Each structure stands twice: as structure tokens, then as C-alpha cells.
Amino acid sequence: TCVRVVINARLHIDLPLYAIQDEAFTSLMQAEIARDLQKSLTMDAQIDLDEEVYRRLAGSEILLAHRTEGWIVSDPRVLQVWFENAVALYGQQIRRLSRVFKGLRDWRWAESDLGSIAIMGALVQARSAVREDFDSNRDDLAIVTLAREMSGRVLQAIENPAFPGQPECNLCKDWSPEFRQQVSAMWWEAAEAVESAIRDQVHKGLALNKVRAVFGDRLPTDESLVSLVGVAAVIRSEVPQPAPRPMVPRSKSG
């Protein structure tokens, strides 16, 4: 449904083409914008619909260009509102983690059946299943927990947030069992790598190498971006104390 504009080996932009039906456009012109623009515009003039007008369109009036099916009814606002609600519920961390897992996908596969919406769906479903509060300043810990949860969930089904309760619209319904296992393994390996970087490394460079091995060389090697936390930080922050002298047992001469 999109035109892909390739910028370079690392960057691309996917552009969907949306339109509204003539009747909807005419109605909007008459009811919403003609009041302010009728003096300078005709009914066939090109205009930019403002946010209020866009929000008041009926879902059936928004069409998406499809290569084989022509114009199909598709309302992008459903997904937009769904994810905005997720951000409102879980904070900006969910948006950052979405980008992290999309970047992981891009590093692993140049072309993949794992779509961005499927990643977002799996992430939000995993977050809703984890009954704990995450530190908004510790995305690394959230990655460990949620990547493991996503790894298990992808072996079942990723519901399409635009069509809840409709299994025929699930975002992973066309995946082969082999690909499903690959996606599951990718998220599990990501959780293991980040946890190892947090728990098992006392050197910042080694911790970065652990994460870069899974997430790719898009991650910077700047050690100043890494904070020392956990057991290693506690040990290093302790002021050295002299050990107590051993007790000398009593003895008798002779």
C-alpha cells in the first residue's frame, strides 16, 4: 500500500496515499470551510484540511490506494488513536521502546514480514500483560522484561489494534512457523543481551559490545552515554574499610 522512497542503505520513507470521496469533500467544503474560504476558492480548488475537519470525517470516507485492490476503505486514525492512548497510559517510554524494537528489526532483516504495526501491537500487548511499574529512566530494564514477554506472545497471535477481536485480521496470521520462531528468538536474544550488559559487565565498553552485537552498529560506542549501576556501582561506591584484627587465642607457656 505504500511507495518506498529509498534515501540510502540505512534510511527509507514509506508513503501511503490517502484520499476522501468527492461527496465527503463537497460536504466538508460546505459545512466546515466554505464559511472562511468561499471568497477565494472554488469547489474544485485544492485545499489542506485542518485537524478539526480531518477528525470529523467518517471512517468509511477515507480511502487508501492499494496496488492490486484499487481504493480501499482504511481509516489511519484508528491506529493513531490506539497508540496515542497507549502512550497516555504507559508514558513516552512505550514510544521509545517501539523505536528500539523497530531498529532491531531493521538491523536483523533488510526486508521482513515483521511489520512496524505488528511490533507496536506486540509491544503494547506485552506491556498490558506485565503488571508492574517501570522506571521511566530505565528503558534498558523495560527492554529486558518486555522483549521476553513479546518473545512468548509472538508464538500465539498479535491482534490487529484496528480490528480487535477479529482473528482473521491478526498481524501475524500469514507468518510461517519458522518465521514466527525467528521473531521469537530475536526478541529473546535481545532481552538476554541487554540483561547481560546490565548484570554481568563492569566495563562500559564490554556492556556496549554486548548490546551492539544484537542491536547493530547503529548504537554509538560513546561510553559516556553509559551509567554504571547495580552491584558493580555499589561495590565501587563503598569506602574501603580496614578488616578487623583476628582474635588471638589464649595460650599457656611451658
Nutshell version of this structure?
The chain has about 250 residues and is mainly alpha-helical.
Provide an overview of this structure.
This protein has helices spanning 22-37, 51-55, 77-90, 93-108, 116-129, 139-153, 177-199, 204-215, 230-237; strands at residues 2-6, 12-16, 18-20, 62-66, 70-73. α6 packs antiparallel against α7. It is 48% helix and 9% strand. The protein has a 3-stranded antiparallel β-sheet. The protein is mainly α and 254 residues long.
What coarse outline follows from CA principal-axis ratios? elongated
The average pLDDT value, as a whole number, equals 81
Within the largest sheet, what's the order of strands? 3-4-5
Uncertain residue ranges: 234-239
Characterize the largest beta sheet: strand count, sense, and whether it forms a barrel.
Answer: 3 strands, antiparallel
Our count of helices gives 9
Radius of gyration, taken over Cα atoms and rounded to an integer in Å? 27 Å
Name the structural class.
Answer: mainly alpha
Strand content: 5-15%
Number of DSSP E strands: 5
Helicity, as a percent range: 40-55%
Distance between the termini: 100 Å
Q: Would you list the SSEs in sequence order as H and E?
A: EEEHHEEHHHHHHH
